[in-house]
Write a structure and sequence with these properties.
Elements: H1 3-7, E1 10-14, E2 17-19, E3 21-29, E4 37-42, E5 45-51, E6 57-62, E7 71-83, E8 89-98, E9 104-111, E10 123-125, E11 129-136, E12 142-148, E13 155-166, E14 183-189, E15 192-201, E16 216-218, E17 221-224, E18 239-240, E19 243-244
Antiparallel strand pairs: 1-15, 1-17, 2-16, 3-13, 4-5, 5-13, 6-12, 7-10, 7-11, 7-13, 8-9, 8-12, 14-15, 18-19
Length: 246
């Protein structure tokens, strides 16, 4: 979508809700084909990672072992290799595409760690780069494609899926701390009309919330269209204490 079209769309953010979530039943996924793998010793346990070569890594059926109606968290963990001496920081990145969606570019700047591998003595590995995405379970699972960026050092990837279980009820509805106007939206469900409050997120504006953690937060969005096309995409960025979350 062009930039002009993007700014003709108003994104509406529903007041944030606290949600108590428990992570259950982890699953680790291997990519298709014969890919190089390495076992890394992390906090006394061995974890299998796969090398991200120029052909990328392709995963199929991610999350399909869970039941329909469940929600899952897909985690993509990554590390780069580094010598025990030399540069303290490694820069690397890759793109992640889920099904036929738009590829998401991820870039990391990671320092070294105490993680080692018996497969490659004398080397260690960076701190983990982590990216999570929360999705409903699909009958055949999700296809995930991970492709390296140009100029990458050697990168290793680990993909997991975990079931989410909601515990308790929604907590308080949160209000912005930077005094933003709210819009009232009425939704008719059969004969009942329900009113909820939403915050408009417009060009060059921010919605700021103060949240006491640890807590899980759920964000709902709607779009007001003025160009008559209900299929336009829209984007927003979420930050915590100045750091991009997605």
């Amino acid at each position: 979508m062009s930039q002009n079209r993007f700014y003709r769309i108003t994104i509406l953010i529903f007041s944030l809700l606290f949600l108590n979530i428990v992570i259950l039943q982890a699953g680790i996924h291997a990519p298709k084909g014969e890919e190089n793998k390495i076992k890394l010793k992390i906090k006394g346990k061995e974890r299998t990672y796969y090398e991200l070569d120029e052909n990328g890594l392709n995963y199929k059926g991610v999350g399909k072992k869970f039941e329909m109606g469940d929600s899952i968290r897909i985690g993509i963990y990554s590390r780069s290799i580094k010598a025990q001496t030399g540069k303290k920081i490694r820069n690397y990145g890759f793109t992640v595409q889920i099904d036929n969606g738009k590829p998401q570019k991820l870039k990391y700047n990671k320092s070294g760690s105490n993680v080692t591998s018996a497969d490659r003595p004398g080397w260690n590995y960076t701190q983990s780069g982590v990216w999570f995405v929360y999705l409903p379970v699909k009958e055949k699972g999700y296809k995930i494609k991970v492709e390296p960026l140009k100029g990458n050092p050697v990168v290793y990837v680990r993909v997991s899926s975990k079931k989410l279980k909601k515990r308790g009820k929604f907590g308080d509805v949160l209000k912005t701390v930077n005094r933003q106007d709210r819009w009232r939206i009425e939704t008719q469900i059969e004969k009942e009309i329900k009113t909820t409050h939403w915050y408009p997120l417009k060009k060059d504006k921010q919605l700021q919330y103060e949240i006491n953690g640890p807590a899980s937060v759920k964000v709902f969005t709607r779009v007001e269209f003025d160009n008559g096309n209900p299929k336009d995409d829209y984007y927003m960025r979420i930050r915590e204490d100045g750091y991009d979350l997605g």
